[in-house]
């Protein structure tokens, strides 16, 4: 009976929660909301969404536990559908059994949080940038964690084990909540990449990138290639979030706390890095977008050149050309994206050069843009020679 104890404990927690007095429930909720108030400003400091929108998405996130509660009660009345029971009866290896269980837990929870982002995006609020999608995923995760913490705190209070109350509360407020935010933030990032797939798909195509999963889906379900790319991108985000979620739960179950903390810290740095990238902040929504002013053939030639230069690492040249093009065609999303990616790549390149500052003057010269390089004496002599001869 490997997993029945876990499931039974959860069911008891749900029942006890409904037996709480009003003041007791309010006290637990106030305690659980403290970390939420500390976490939200960290991710919202550069986003212009109103507080009403932030609160609305957070409240939607608090409801994502309801489908999971519903599943547990469904399994009580229809045990033939109980996935945990099937794993318990068919898997004898303890580690493998827990891993399979946590995979299903990750699937259920990440799909529930993904549904919040999807619902908000199809409401009046909408996801207008990739940064929005990341933020909405994080808010949904905070809402889920808030409700989950209420259940855990209620369980500790009912057991009378007040000594461990602050330790559990602190760990869940810092590590566990951060874990949920990292998983759902990554899911939100790929949701945004899927929604705004057109310029990313075009930009990657001009750079010669291949999309194995998207091409497979295109052949399998006969969707347009761009739709297959959207589906594959969204599936990729969910898969990464579910996998990290399962790994985190597995580490915690077997007291591998350092591994869990390292996993979350790495994920947090990744999310923080993504949100600081200029390509993430490019406004790609359809609202207030004017059609491109560039002729189709001219646009294809220019974009092909930009793609070639990006592959060759000429990021400064790409940025400078994009600046000139955007003066004529300010709403061209592919040009915007090329510029943002060139700026991101150029900043990384500058950091690399600063660390490896062991090159000659000629090497420094090679790092300059072709628009910045001064004419050498040889070039000057070659250019004035015809004039002198005449």
Report on this structure.
With 390 residues, this protein is mostly helical. It folds into 2 domains: 4-273, no CATH class; 296-389, no CATH class. The chain has helices at 4-18, 22-44, 51-62, 65-77, 83-90, 94-121, 130-159, 165-195, 197-206, 212-221, 225-253, 257-276, 278-281, 296-311, 315-328, 333-355, 361-367, 377-389. Helix 8 packs antiparallel against helix 11, helix 10 (212-221) packs across helix 11 and helix 15 packs antiparallel against helix 16 (333-355). The protein is globular and about 70 Å long. The model is unreliable at 1-12, 358-367 and 369-390 (pLDDT under 50).
List the helices and strands and how they pair.
Layout: H1 4-18, H2 22-44, H3 51-62, H4 65-77, H5 83-90, H6 94-121, H7 130-159, H8 165-195, H9 197-206, H10 212-221, H11 225-253, H12 257-276, H13 278-281, H14 296-311, H15 315-328, H16 333-355, H17 361-367, H18 377-389
Helix pairs in contact: 1-7, 2-7, 3-7, 5-6, 6-7, 6-8, 6-11, 7-8, 8-11, 8-12, 9-16, 10-11, 11-12, 14-16, 15-16
Tell me the span between the first and last alpha carbons. 98 Å
Helix/strand order: HHHHHHHHHHHHHHHHHH
| Average pLDDT figure | 74
Using the CA coordinates, give the radius of gyration. Answer: 26 Å
The level of helicity is over 70%
Q: Helix segment count?
A: 18
Tell me the strand percentage band: under 5%
Summarize the structure.
It is built from 18 helices and no strands.
Please tag this protein with its features:
disordered N terminus, 0% strand, 18 helices, disordered C terminus, 78% helix, 390 residues, 2 domains, mainly alpha
